[in-house]
């Protein structure tokens, strides 16, 4: 355990040295974070703070700014609007508090954001990934509409298996190929098998 702590300390010290120009922001931020019950580690090459194995906050340095990275920052009240959206897609919930040269580091206010982030994590606040609607190619949909038995068998498949068949049939450029794939897939669907199940037992 001691060696792990020492390794983390060495990595973070090296990170701070690498981003020397942001030391006046990163060091006091680290002091605030280390004063909580969160565990300090290194992920994606940057100092990261976790609670019960969940990523809560990260510290990062860039060319023109450094930032405190709140993994579920979307839930922070942020009355004074210090946070910016870190991006779309997988980073939908993340927010950054960015600091540039000449900015002041408001330690007390930062600590209030950190404590709020910890409380949100404790209460289980998180954004669940949105389920993408299954796109069924026309040939498969027509077959399902015409054959109730096939429709029932397809509906009974796991979402993953449904997706495999839909993508396998729909990815063919020519209609002839899509129909050929559908013809071969239908017996397996009726047996409740996934597209690749017959190979798994080989």
Separation, N- and C-terminal Cα atoms:
44 Å
If you consult CATH, what is the topology of the largest domain? Aspartate Aminotransferase, domain 1
Q: Give, in order, the helices and strands.
A: HHEEEEEEHHHHHH
Q: What's the overall geometry?
A: elongated
Q: Beta-strand level of the residues, as a percent range?
A: 15-25%
Residue runs with pLDDT of under 50 for 5 or more positions: none
Helix content: 40-55%
Number of domains: 2
What would CATH call the class of the largest domain?
Answer: Alpha Beta
Mean pLDDT equals 89
**Architecture per CATH nomenclature, i.e. the level-2 architecture of the largest domain:** Alpha-Beta Complex
* Structural class by sheet pairing and helices: alpha+beta
Largest sheet: 6 strands, antiparallel
Work out the radius of gyration: 25 Å
Question: Could you give the order of strands across the largest sheet?
Answer: 1-2-3-4-6-5
Number of helices: 8
The total beta strand count reads: 6
Brief characterization of the structure:
This protein folds into two domains: 2-122, Aspartate Aminotransferase, domain 1; 138-200, no CATH class. Helix content is 47%, strand content 16%. The chain contains eight helices and six strands; from the N terminus they run ααββββββαααααα.
Give an overview of the whole structure:
With 202 residues, the chain is α+β, with helices and mostly antiparallel strands. It has two domains: 2-122, Aspartate Aminotransferase, domain 1 (Alpha-Beta Complex), CATH 3.90.1150; 138-200, no CATH class. Helix content is 47%, strand content 16%. It has eight helices and six strands; from the N terminus they run H-H-E-E-E-E-E-E-H-H-H-H-H-H. It has helices at residues 2-18, 23-34, 107-122, 138-146, 148-156, 159-170, 175-190, 197-200, and strands spanning 39-43, 46-51, 54-61, 66-70, 83-85, 95-99. It has a six-stranded antiparallel beta sheet with strand order 1-2-3-4-6-5. A hairpin with a 2-residue loop joins strand 1 (39-43) and strand 2. The radius of gyration is 25 Å and the shape is elongated. 22% of the residues are buried. The mean pLDDT is 89.
